[in-house]
Amino acid sequence: MTAGTPILTAAQMRDAEQALFDAGVDDYGLMEKAGAAAAEIIWRAGGHRDTLLLCGPGNNGGDGFVIARLLRGRGVPVRVAALGTSGTVSSRRALAAWDGPVEDLATAAPATQLVDALFGTGLSRGLDPAVAARLCELTGAASRSYAIDLPSGVETDSGALLSAVPHFGVCIALGALKPAHLLYPAADYVARLVCADIGIPASDRVHRLMPPRLRAPGAADHKYARGLVAVVGGAMTGASLLAAQAAARSGAGMVRRLAADGLRHGADAIVTQDAGTVEALGCSLDDGRLASVLVGPGLGRDAVARARLDMVLGCGHRLVLDADALTLIGIEEIPDGAILTPHEGEFVRLFGDLPGSKIDRARAAAARSGAVIIYKGADSVIAAPDGRVAVASGASHWLSTAGTGDVLAGLVAGRLAVTGDAFAAAGEAVWLHGDAARRAGAAFIADDLLATLPAAIAARL
Ligand SMILES: NC(=O)C1=CN([C@@H]2O[C@H](COP(=O)(O)OP(=O)(O)OC[C@H]3O[C@@H](n4cnc5c(N)ncnc54)[C@H](O)[C@@H]3O)[C@@H](O)[C@H]2O)[C@@H](O)CC1
Ligand SMILES: Nc1ncnc2c1ncn2[C@@H]1O[C@H](COP(=O)(O)OP(=O)(O)O)[C@@H](O)[C@H]1O
Ligand SMILES: [K+]
């Protein structure tokens, strides 16, 4: 999987900054660099528009004073309103270098552009209600708004809102993304996210999901070389059909639906095998060419479903477990190297109410189960047992419609059959699913994603 922009928690960010200082980087120099990067972005977008900077008591406020000075140096009409007294060495230096007046936040008048440098990664509790209300009022009155590092009021590591937060046009993340940039609810409060490079070394563990690079088939490829996928059917035909059709359009070479119903629906390219009994299912799974097996969509939850699941769990192939399979299974039964695709309800049922952010929970579940976890939702988190994490962002909220999870599960099984690498396959599938949804526009149904998948794949070759 292509590594995307790193995501660091507040503590990891502090450690990364400390490592730079230990290596001889000047503390205040880093603030100047951060402020300069942010000022450049604001200047390029806003030119000479009148601007109000809100500066807090910590280093986020220090960034604000640097931005104010640099914008004013370019002739921008800038005003500064401060909250509290600058309390860090660097922020005091930044304040001292600002040679304009400092207004009171409580009485400052609005401006065309608003820059929020009240709090960043150091926020430890919600803003005082009066301060939060002022922030919302001044941001709402501006036609352009920027949050420096983070919108003041969001919890860096979880994305929770600790107090009222206004919607920002742009958030300028400093040095790395933080979980709150991608996790909900905080992610909803920023229309556009940019990350300014200030020399923080990239971490190799947690990233934003990047567009994958896919391989087109070559002259030596044939249908089995490109991956044979089995989709296990059950009580409800539609779900396994959606999954099988998505797998068939994932780049895999061949898809078999091991049907419990004997019905031959869906694309003619999909081979329907009659696997109504557990014995017949076992025979179908006894094929060394199978590169992945998906079980769960439409499986059912009764004793028959459980028997079918047991047969799949013992088949020895690479597995994708979704939907009903996640409801039937216990953690101890999950085969190493499988991919699980739980939504919130399935995740909590299987792994319990784990502590921490969605990233922490996905990571803990992957470590505990030995499986790659795709913890679905508007912010899907993909975690591997070895600690790697990719966080998907910007998915169309129109995906919140029945059957899109079945399409994702089929795509995951397809990409797993193609690549053989569970973490890479999970990332590719989540990306392609999101892009197919974007191409499908508004009010689509799960079936419509099948039509847009080939274009999503073509865009990544
Ligand atoms: N370490 C560094 O030198 C750098 C830090 N940078 C900036 O510094 C930020 C982090 O700075 P800090 O650690 O100083 O933290 P903040 O500037 O986010 O604020 C922390 C200060 O606010 C207080 N505080 C926390 N929550 C509060 C609340 N609800 N109401 C009132 N006061 C509250 C804290 O006690 C502390 O004094 C980053 O987000 C980034 O903007 C950048 O300048 C890059 C360099
Ligand atoms: N509000 C949302 N915004 C973006 N994506 C969403 C949203 N809600 C759900 N999704 C995505 O849609 C899919 C829904 O899957 P799931 O809940 O299993 O539905 P179903 O079982 O009906 O197929 C997942 O890929 C999930 O990440
Ligand atoms: K801020």
List the main descriptive attributes of the protein structure presented here.
alpha/beta, 15 helices, binds ligand NAX, Rossmann fold, seven-stranded parallel sheet, UDP-N-acetylmuramoyl-L-alanine:D-glutamate ligase, 17 strands, binds adenosine-5'-diphosphate, binds potassium ion, single chain, 461 residues
Task: Please summarize what this structure is.
With 461 residues, the chain is an alpha/beta fold.
Describe the structure.
- Its EC number is 4.2.1.136, 5.1.99.6.
- (6S)-NADPHX binds at residues 59-63, 120-126, 149, 239, 298, 343, 406.
- Pfam families: Carb_kinase, YjeF_N.
- GO terms for molecular function: ADP-dependent NAD(P)H-hydrate dehydratase activity; ATP binding; metal ion binding; NAD(P)HX epimerase activity.
- The protein is α/β, with parallel strands linked by helices and 461 residues long.
- It has two domains: 10-204, Rossmann fold, CATH 3.40.50.10260; 228-458, UDP-N-acetylmuramoyl-L-alanine:D-glutamate ligase (3-Layer(aba) Sandwich).
- It is 39% helix and 16% strand.
- It has 15 helices and 17 strands.
- A ten-stranded mixed β-sheet has the order 8-17-16-15-14-13-12-9-10-11, with helices on both faces.
- Helix 8 runs parallel beside helix 9, helix 13 packs across helix 14 and helix 13 (404-419) packs parallel to helix 15 (446-458).
- The mean pLDDT is 96.
- It binds ligand NAX, adenosine-5'-diphosphate and potassium ion (K).
- Ligand NAX is lined by residues 17, 27, 30-31, 34, 56-63, 87-88, 90, 119-127, 148-149, 174.
- The site of potassium ion (K) has 11 residues, from strand 4 and strand 5.
